[in-house]
Amino acid sequence: MTIIEAQREIAKILKEGGVENAMNEARFLLQDALGCDSVQLVTGYRDYACTSCVETAFDWAKRRAAGEPMQYILGHTDFMGLDIRVAPGVLIPRPETEGLCELLANEAKVRKAADPASRWPARILDLCTGSGCIAAWAASAFGDAKIVAADLSEEALAIAAENCRNSRIELRQGDLFGAVGDGLRFDAILSNPPYIPSKTVDGLDAEVKDFEPRLALDGGPEGMDLVARIIREAPEYLMPGGLLLMEIDDTQEELVRSACEESGRYASFEVLRDLAGKIRNLKARI
Ligand SMILES: C[S@@+](CC[C@H](N)C(=O)[O-])C[C@H]1O[C@@H](n2cnc3c(N)ncnc32)[C@H](O)[C@@H]1O
Asked: Which residue's CA is minimally distant from atom 12 of ligand 1?
């Protein structure tokens, strides 16, 4: 079977399973199964594909057609240009979370412009690290920074260990700041905690609800259980002038504003929208 014939057959399986963009997804599956990139795939369309690779791609297509997320099937995904390993038990990093990284990168640029000798941020905490995608990015973006990446889930931390091989990243297990312990302070705390209201989780697409860990998604009745705790507790772990950057739900603007005001510890805070115009992030400074 040639590569293009295999791609068409795989796209057919995907389409029958209700997958949108079946031809595109077929291309991704084939690329990984054949171990080639998109250019090699296109230029080699008329070449015969290795039989066992095509069989692998067909098996993957059947799993995809049954609703399993592509990233779990392939075992990896892209985040901020890094190839991040993922597996069931860990949330698949989302493009939206890249916005959190960009907020930190922009803040570092502003501080560098004001003081060219600035090495800010020297210490970063990635709370609720999951796959470790944010910590792995931070290690690559800030060459001197020391990073602590924490999560409650041992399963998630096992995957994070594969993504966070940089010796400047320390992985810790525990309930939010309980994993960090007393005495440590950071220039920036980044967190993408579980923030989806429980009822909304129940109504999510099967692809998310049935495959991704509920611990990574469900933030309690209003989605605020962990968000509120992080807003309350983060100041104890921030250096003077330090930043809390957090991903939040579109429904939480007022709740998040109130939590920041009630804390009384933030010198300033902003609730920010993403490029799609949705409420997406909290940026708070002590
Ligand atoms: C939305 S996921 C974020 C994963 C990753 N940072 C990302 O952006 O792709 C939330 C993570 O919080 C972790 N988590 C849930 N409850 C926690 C708690 N009480 N303390 C620490 N981590 C927790 C989950 O295990 C999950 O890995």
From this structure: 128
